[in-house]
Amino acid sequence: MKKAYQIYSIITSFGMLLVLLMGAIVTKTDSGDGCGNSWPLCYGQLLPTQPKLETIIEVSHRAVSAWLGILVIILAIWAWRREPHKKEIKILAFISVFFIVLQGLLGAAAVIWSQSSLILASHFGFSLVSFASVLMLAILSFEDWDKPYIATVSRSFKKNIYWLFIYMYLVVYTGALVRHTGSAMGCSDDFPLCNGSLIPEFTKQASIHYLHRTAAFILFIWILYSWYHARKHYRDQKVLNKGFQFALLFIFLQAASGSLIVISNLNLFVALSHGLIISFLFGTLSFIALIVYRKKIT
Q: Is 274 among the annotated ligand-binding positions?
């Protein structure tokens, strides 16, 4: 049964990643209104006849999200019953279900009633939390009883990791806000400058875009510092150091893909890679926060 659980958790993790990418496609292609204000049906039909491209994209996203919701619920129940003695398993199982249901309800509300960009931007963040919790369940299924994934660090560095994780979620939110306010080209095609200036004239779109750039740069420096600190003071903590190595790699790739979005004038594949990399980075920092939180396997 352990092997089956591991395979199922991996499949569900990839499925959640697919949901994230499909959600990004819906936003990037402006397909959110592909079914009008009808939900859960599409224009009052289960499968609309002669659908437009945006309708196909929206219906596909709804169908995949619904199936993944079922898969996540099954995974959560399976994980809870399989390892009821692990507190973190129960927490992750609850979070995975709670946030996938919440993002589904938020998506439905966005279809039926118009929502502000501030509310819509939280949709991606909720999906990301559910993905990360499912990913953690999958990773923990591979740990050995005698070698659990735990990192022992100082209280100050543990707080640093927690605050880094929280800050990254805020950075993700600013990125989603850029997407939902149409501010991806708020600095035109300038990089690293913004509309030809280091500090631009702050129109609405330029302000949102510049805020995200600045927040992302701070995140880059913060992860670089944390990687260096872990490497210097916790060289013997192999899992911790490996986690920060991946975090550093992903933040480099994230910065590169972010600049390419501007330079390529919103190329769809580059934009999707940006969303994919941030998902990997969020999952990595989630894992780091988890292993410093854990004290022992009971």
A: yes
